[in-house]
Each structure stands twice: as C-alpha cells, then as structure tokens.
Design brief:
The protein has about 150 residues and is an alpha/beta fold. It has 6 helices and 5 strands; from the N terminus they run H-H-E-H-E-E-H-E-H-E-H.
C-alpha cells in the first residue's frame, strides 16, 4: 500500500490470505454475475470449476437462464436466499456497482476476475466489512489450495 491511504495496490487487493479465506471458509453459495449459457465466455468454465469443488453457483444475468443445472436470476436482488460470495464477470466499468449490490444483499465477499480492478469499489466493499479480491480467478486459485 502506498503512503496515500486511499490507494490500494496489488498486494492488498489480491492478498493470498483473503483468497484462501474466501475459497475455504466464507461459504459455498457463489453468485456468478454475468454467467449465461454462452460456453465461450470465461464465466461458464469458471462456474463449472466452482461446482466441481463443491460450490453452489447462482447464475446472475439479465436473461436469468438456468446454467449448469442451477436456476438463474436477473439481478442479485432477485436471488431469494443468502449468497456468500459474489463473483463478478462484467465490464470493469460496471463492476463497482455490482460490488455495491453485493454489500446491499448481505454477501460476505466479492471477487473481481482477472483484469477487473476498481480501487474505489474495493475501499467501499472492505469498509462495509466484506472480504474482497480483485484481478484473480477462483478457477486458478482453488486447485492450488491442495
């Protein structure tokens, strides 16, 4: 972290201890925002890996499609049960708003995928008491836990 306390750096927003905590002890219900039946999109494959490792995935996409056997919802607010982790597969310009929605629904953690970095959203989310990582992929990290 730099001397300016409002700026985060890669070591903080992708901290290994936060990654491990989210993957092992935050909970097993993962809302995957941006997940659809488009097999060419990264969200589709990452959701399958999360399922293989015992996570319940909840597709969140405007189309509200059933994906990998799980019913989809048009928004996080439409999900009628608690969500532990919100995994964000949207354009970086929209990711901060999704993080705010995660706070609003009472999620425990937010995960921004590779190349998605929003330092202001990170600060807001952490200030609200949630764990958060950015610029990491759970499908890469979860097998590393061994």
């Amino acid at each position: 972290m730099s001397a300016d306390s409002t700026t985060t750096g890669p070591a903080e927003y992708s901290a290994s201890e936060a990654v491990r905590r989210i993957l092992t002890s935050t909970g097993d219900t993962w809302a995957v925002v941006g997940l659809s039946n488009n097999r060419a999109r990264a969200a589709y494959g990452v959701a399958a890996v999360l399922q293989r490792f015992g996570k319940r995935i909840v597709p969140v996409h405007p189309k509200a499609e059933t994906v990998h056997g799980e019913r989809g919802y048009a928004s996080l607010a439409d999900v009628p049960f608690p969500v532990d982790v919100v995994d964000v597969f949207v354009n970086g310009d929209l990711a901060g708003g999704v993080a705010d929605e995660a706070v609003a629904i009472g999620a425990k953690a937010v995960w921004f995928q590779l190349d998605v970095i929003d330092e202001a959203a990170f600060a807001r989310t952490r200030e609200a008491g949630l764990d958060m990582v950015m610029d990491r992929c759970p499908a890469i990290e979860i097998p590393r836990l061994g």
